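Need a sequence for this fold. Nothing fancy.
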Protein backbone atom coordinates (compact mmCIF):
# COMPACT_ATOMS: atom_id res chain seq x y z
CA UNK A 1 0.00 0.00 0.00
CA UNK A 2 1.32 3.42 -0.86
CA UNK A 3 2.32 5.77 1.91
CA UNK A 4 0.39 8.93 2.64
CA UNK A 5 -3.10 9.48 4.05
CA UNK A 6 -4.65 6.17 5.08
CA UNK A 7 -7.45 4.71 3.02
CA UNK A 8 -10.38 3.72 5.18
CA UNK A 9 -11.42 0.08 5.10
CA UNK A 10 -15.09 0.98 4.66
CA UNK A 11 -14.49 1.18 0.92
CA UNK A 12 -14.39 -2.61 0.89
CA UNK A 13 -18.05 -2.92 1.77
CA UNK A 14 -19.47 -2.30 -1.73
CA UNK A 15 -16.85 -4.59 -3.31
CA UNK A 16 -17.72 -7.49 -1.01
CA UNK A 17 -21.44 -6.76 -1.34
CA UNK A 18 -21.21 -7.00 -5.13
CA UNK A 19 -18.81 -9.92 -5.49
CA UNK A 20 -19.16 -11.94 -2.28
CA UNK A 21 -16.09 -14.00 -1.36
CA UNK A 22 -14.61 -13.30 -4.79
CA UNK A 23 -14.53 -9.65 -3.79
CA UNK A 24 -11.29 -10.20 -1.90
CA UNK A 25 -9.51 -11.21 -5.09
CA UNK A 26 -11.20 -8.34 -6.93
CA UNK A 27 -9.82 -5.93 -4.31
CA UNK A 28 -6.32 -7.38 -4.68
CA UNK A 29 -6.50 -7.15 -8.46
CA UNK A 30 -7.55 -3.50 -8.13
CA UNK A 31 -4.65 -2.95 -5.70
CA UNK A 32 -7.21 -1.79 -3.14
CA UNK A 33 -5.90 -3.26 0.10
CA UNK A 34 -6.71 -0.77 2.87
CA UNK A 35 -6.00 -3.31 5.60
CA UNK A 36 -2.30 -3.12 4.72
CA UNK A 37 -0.10 -0.49 6.34
CA UNK A 38 2.92 1.31 5.02
CA UNK A 39 4.97 0.02 7.95
CA UNK A 40 4.36 -3.48 6.52
CA UNK A 41 4.74 -5.56 9.68
CA UNK A 42 2.54 -4.52 12.57
CA UNK A 43 4.54 -2.78 15.33
CA UNK A 44 2.58 -4.54 18.07
CA UNK A 45 3.44 -7.97 16.69
CA UNK A 46 7.09 -7.08 16.18
CA UNK A 47 7.34 -5.75 19.75
CA UNK A 48 5.73 -8.92 21.13
CA UNK A 49 8.00 -11.27 19.21
CA UNK A 50 11.10 -9.38 20.34
CA UNK A 51 10.06 -8.87 23.98
CA UNK A 52 12.60 -10.13 26.50
CA UNK A 53 10.23 -10.74 29.40
CA UNK A 54 6.95 -12.56 28.78
CA UNK A 55 4.79 -14.82 30.99
CA UNK A 56 5.16 -17.69 28.51
CA UNK A 57 7.76 -19.24 26.21
CA UNK A 58 7.70 -19.33 22.44
CA UNK A 59 7.75 -22.73 20.70
CA UNK A 60 11.20 -24.17 20.23
CA UNK A 61 10.94 -25.14 16.59
CA UNK A 62 7.79 -26.38 14.95
CA UNK A 63 5.41 -24.58 12.64
CA UNK A 64 2.98 -21.69 12.50
CA UNK A 65 -0.16 -20.91 10.50
CA UNK A 66 -1.31 -17.47 9.33
CA UNK A 67 -4.83 -17.59 7.85
CA UNK A 68 -5.75 -14.57 5.76
CA UNK A 69 -2.05 -13.86 5.31
CA UNK A 70 -2.38 -11.23 2.58
CA UNK A 71 1.02 -10.08 1.34
CA UNK A 72 2.71 -12.18 3.98
CA UNK A 73 4.54 -9.48 5.94
CA UNK A 74 3.67 -11.00 9.31
CA UNK A 75 4.27 -14.57 8.15
CA UNK A 76 7.86 -13.68 7.23
CA UNK A 77 8.34 -11.77 10.49
CA UNK A 78 7.18 -14.76 12.56
CA UNK A 79 9.43 -17.14 10.65
CA UNK A 80 12.46 -14.84 10.87
CA UNK A 81 12.01 -14.08 14.58
CA UNK A 82 10.90 -17.41 16.02
CA UNK A 83 12.54 -19.79 13.56
CA UNK A 84 9.27 -21.59 12.82
CA UNK A 85 8.15 -23.05 9.51
CA UNK A 86 5.26 -20.78 8.53
CA UNK A 87 2.34 -21.41 6.20
CA UNK A 88 0.30 -18.44 5.02
CA UNK A 89 -3.16 -19.12 3.61
CA UNK A 90 -5.34 -16.67 1.71
CA UNK A 91 -8.57 -16.96 -0.24
CA UNK A 92 -7.18 -14.66 -2.93
CA UNK A 93 -4.77 -16.19 -5.44
CA UNK A 94 -3.63 -12.66 -6.26
CA UNK A 95 -2.74 -12.09 -2.60
CA UNK A 96 -0.80 -15.33 -2.48
CA UNK A 97 1.20 -14.36 -5.55
CA UNK A 98 1.90 -10.98 -3.93
CA UNK A 99 3.08 -12.81 -0.80
CA UNK A 100 5.42 -15.01 -2.81
CA UNK A 101 6.78 -11.95 -4.59
CA UNK A 102 7.33 -10.16 -1.27
CA UNK A 103 9.13 -13.17 0.18
CA UNK A 104 11.41 -13.53 -2.83
CA UNK A 105 12.40 -9.86 -2.54
CA UNK A 106 12.72 -9.81 1.25
CA UNK A 107 16.08 -11.53 1.41
CA UNK A 108 14.73 -13.80 4.13
CA UNK A 109 16.06 -17.33 4.41
CA UNK A 110 13.22 -18.35 6.71
CA UNK A 111 10.99 -21.26 5.79
CA UNK A 112 7.76 -19.65 4.58
CA UNK A 113 5.26 -21.13 2.14
CA UNK A 114 1.90 -19.93 0.88
CA UNK A 115 -1.25 -21.53 -0.42
CA UNK A 116 -4.46 -20.13 -1.85
CA UNK A 117 -7.72 -21.58 -0.63
CA UNK A 118 -10.61 -21.42 1.78
CA UNK A 119 -9.40 -21.69 5.37
CA UNK A 120 -12.82 -22.95 6.40
CA UNK A 121 -12.50 -25.91 4.03
CA UNK A 122 -8.99 -27.00 5.10
CA UNK A 123 -8.74 -30.48 6.52
CA UNK A 124 -7.17 -30.63 9.97
CA UNK A 125 -3.57 -31.84 9.62
CA UNK A 126 -2.27 -34.86 11.51
CA UNK A 127 0.75 -32.78 12.53
CA UNK A 128 -0.88 -29.74 14.08
CA UNK A 129 0.55 -26.25 14.39
CA UNK A 130 2.47 -24.81 17.33
CA UNK A 131 1.26 -21.28 16.71
CA UNK A 132 -1.57 -19.52 14.86
CA UNK A 133 -1.62 -15.78 14.18
CA UNK A 134 -4.68 -13.72 13.23
CA UNK A 135 -4.86 -10.03 12.56
CA UNK A 136 -7.41 -8.84 9.99
CA UNK A 137 -8.87 -12.24 9.08
CA UNK A 138 -11.36 -12.76 11.94
CA UNK A 139 -12.76 -9.25 11.54
CA UNK A 140 -13.07 -9.63 7.77
CA UNK A 141 -15.54 -12.50 7.94
CA UNK A 142 -19.25 -11.99 8.71
CA UNK A 143 -19.95 -12.66 12.41
CA UNK A 144 -22.12 -15.64 11.45
CA UNK A 145 -18.95 -17.39 10.23
CA UNK A 146 -16.99 -16.85 13.42
CA UNK A 147 -17.91 -20.25 14.95
CA UNK A 148 -16.32 -21.85 11.88
CA UNK A 149 -13.17 -19.83 12.49
CA UNK A 150 -13.08 -21.08 16.09
CA UNK A 151 -13.59 -24.68 14.98
CA UNK A 152 -10.76 -24.44 12.45
CA UNK A 153 -8.35 -22.84 14.89
CA UNK A 154 -9.09 -25.62 17.38
CA UNK A 155 -8.63 -28.22 14.65
CA UNK A 156 -5.30 -26.85 13.44
CA UNK A 157 -3.58 -25.86 16.70
CA UNK A 158 -2.01 -28.53 18.90
CA UNK A 159 -2.52 -28.82 22.63
CA UNK A 160 -0.31 -26.24 24.41
CA UNK A 161 -0.07 -24.30 21.16
CA UNK A 162 -0.25 -20.50 21.11
CA UNK A 163 -2.78 -18.26 19.40
CA UNK A 164 -1.72 -14.65 18.81
CA UNK A 165 -4.50 -12.19 18.05
CA UNK A 166 -3.99 -8.57 17.11
CA UNK A 167 -7.56 -7.56 17.90
CA UNK A 168 -8.86 -4.59 15.92
CA UNK A 169 -11.17 -2.63 15.64
CA UNK A 170 -12.07 -2.20 19.31
CA UNK A 171 -14.02 0.66 20.92
CA UNK A 172 -15.96 1.65 17.82
CA UNK A 173 -19.66 1.97 17.12
CA UNK A 174 -19.17 0.71 13.56
CA UNK A 175 -21.97 -1.74 12.72
CA UNK A 176 -21.26 -2.86 9.18
CA UNK A 177 -18.22 -4.52 7.74
CA UNK A 178 -15.70 -5.62 6.79
CA UNK A 179 -14.02 -4.99 9.13
CA UNK A 180 -16.58 -5.99 11.74
CA UNK A 181 -16.19 -4.38 15.15
CA UNK A 182 -15.06 -6.40 18.17
CA UNK A 183 -16.20 -6.47 21.77
CA UNK A 184 -13.44 -4.74 23.79
CA UNK A 185 -13.60 -7.58 26.35
CA UNK A 186 -12.62 -9.96 23.50
CA UNK A 187 -15.62 -12.20 24.17
CA UNK A 188 -16.11 -12.49 20.40
CA UNK A 189 -13.04 -14.74 20.35
CA UNK A 190 -13.64 -16.59 23.60
CA UNK A 191 -17.15 -17.72 22.76
CA UNK A 192 -16.06 -19.42 19.51
CA UNK A 193 -12.85 -20.93 20.91
CA UNK A 194 -14.17 -22.42 24.17
CA UNK A 195 -16.36 -25.03 22.48
CA UNK A 196 -16.63 -28.83 22.24
CA UNK A 197 -14.31 -29.47 25.16
CA UNK A 198 -11.61 -27.01 24.14
CA UNK A 199 -10.06 -25.05 27.00
CA UNK A 200 -8.10 -21.84 26.50
CA UNK A 201 -6.02 -19.70 28.84
CA UNK A 202 -5.38 -16.03 28.15
CA UNK A 203 -1.68 -15.54 28.87
CA UNK A 204 -0.99 -11.99 27.81
CA UNK A 205 -2.66 -8.84 26.56
CA UNK A 206 -1.45 -5.35 25.88
CA UNK A 207 -2.88 -2.28 24.22
CA UNK A 208 -1.34 -1.95 20.79
CA UNK A 209 0.53 1.07 19.53
CA UNK A 210 -1.39 3.78 17.76
CA UNK A 211 0.18 2.79 14.44
CA UNK A 212 -2.14 -0.23 14.27
CA UNK A 213 -4.53 0.65 11.44
CA UNK A 214 -4.69 4.26 12.57
CA UNK A 215 -7.41 6.23 10.79
CA UNK A 216 -8.99 3.27 9.04
CA UNK A 217 -11.98 3.05 11.38
CA UNK A 218 -12.86 6.17 13.33
CA UNK A 219 -12.07 5.87 17.03
CA UNK A 220 -10.92 2.26 16.82
CA UNK A 221 -8.18 0.92 19.06
CA UNK A 222 -6.29 -2.38 19.09
CA UNK A 223 -4.91 -4.90 21.54
CA UNK A 224 -2.48 -7.78 21.12
CA UNK A 225 -3.39 -10.96 22.97
CA UNK A 226 -1.87 -14.42 23.39
CA UNK A 227 -3.90 -17.50 24.32
CA UNK A 228 -2.70 -21.02 25.05
CA UNK A 229 -4.83 -23.99 23.99
CA UNK A 230 -4.89 -26.11 27.14
CA UNK A 231 -6.82 -28.99 25.57
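Here you go.
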Amino acid sequence: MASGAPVKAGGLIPIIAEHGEAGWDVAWKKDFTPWEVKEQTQPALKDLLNATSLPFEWPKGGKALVPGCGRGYDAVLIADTLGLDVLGVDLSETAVQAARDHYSKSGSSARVTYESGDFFARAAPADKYDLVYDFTFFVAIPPALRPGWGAQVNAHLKQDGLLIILAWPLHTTKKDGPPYALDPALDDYAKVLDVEGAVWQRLYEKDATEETMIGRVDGATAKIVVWRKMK
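For context: The chain has one domain: 40-229.
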